[in-house]
Amino acid sequence: MIPNDTALLVIDILNPFDFSYGETLAQHTREIVKPINELRTYCEANGHPVIYINDHYELWKADLELIYEKCSNGKSADIMNLLRPSEDDYFLIKPKHSAFYGTALNTLLHHLSIKNIILTGIAGNICVLFTANDAYMREFTLFVPKDAIASVSEEDNHYALTMMKNVLKANIDDTGKLLGE
């Protein structure tokens, strides 16, 4: 059961995958689309805020349409179409790996009276891990469903999940268990 004071973060899901190993990360990301959508549907139905936080791709504008257009291509369109933020979702951009660094995320979470965060997205071993670390230092309780984050390699993803569980005290149960299914 997800506590009332919980927000869902979707990290870097708007992504062109136009870098080394981008195709591999895109393939792994396709595997997490369904669990993220299940979490998003649950959160929307139960009044939990959904917050997308994304790289800015040198645009430096928190303009969803502009970033969506910049990232849309043959590698990303199927992922982005299924996980496109709704009008009720929040959308922030970030300058570096952590969703907290140089953003309004911490202020937004406090404004929304959030105590628990569900972290999803990519890359699990970089941006999700750095965000989890910063959330832990801010004393948020962490849920990182192991089937809702992806990295370029399975080994890196497993390592990140292990670190989040053992060091950051994150719950890494899969989405079904988290939702009580």
Describe the structure.
The chain is α/β, with parallel strands linked by helices and 181 residues long. The chain has one domain (6-178): Rossmann fold, CATH 3.40.50. Helices cover 41% and strands 16% of the residues. Helix 6 (124-137) packs parallel to helix 7. The longest helix has 14 residues, at 124-137. The radius of gyration is 15 Å and the shape is globular. The model has no long low-confidence stretch (mean pLDDT 96).
The total number of structural domains is 1
Q: What class, by secondary structure content? A: alpha/beta
Helix content: 40-55%
What do we call the CATH topology? Rossmann fold
Write down the overall mean pLDDT: 96
Tell me the number of strands.
6
Q: Based on Cα principal axes, name the global outline.
A: globular
CATH architectural arrangement? 3-Layer(aba) Sandwich
Unreliable stretches (pLDDT < 50, length at least 5) are: none
CATH H-level superfamily title:
Isochorismatase-like
Radius of gyration, in angstroms, nearest whole number: 15 Å
Q: What percentage of amino acids are in beta strands?
A: 15-25%
Give a short account of the largest sheet: 6 strands, parallel
Number of helices: 8
Order of helix and strand elements from N to C terminus: EHHEHHEHEHEEHH
CATH class assignment:
Alpha Beta
Brief description of this entry?
This protein is α/β, with parallel strands linked by helices and 181 residues long.
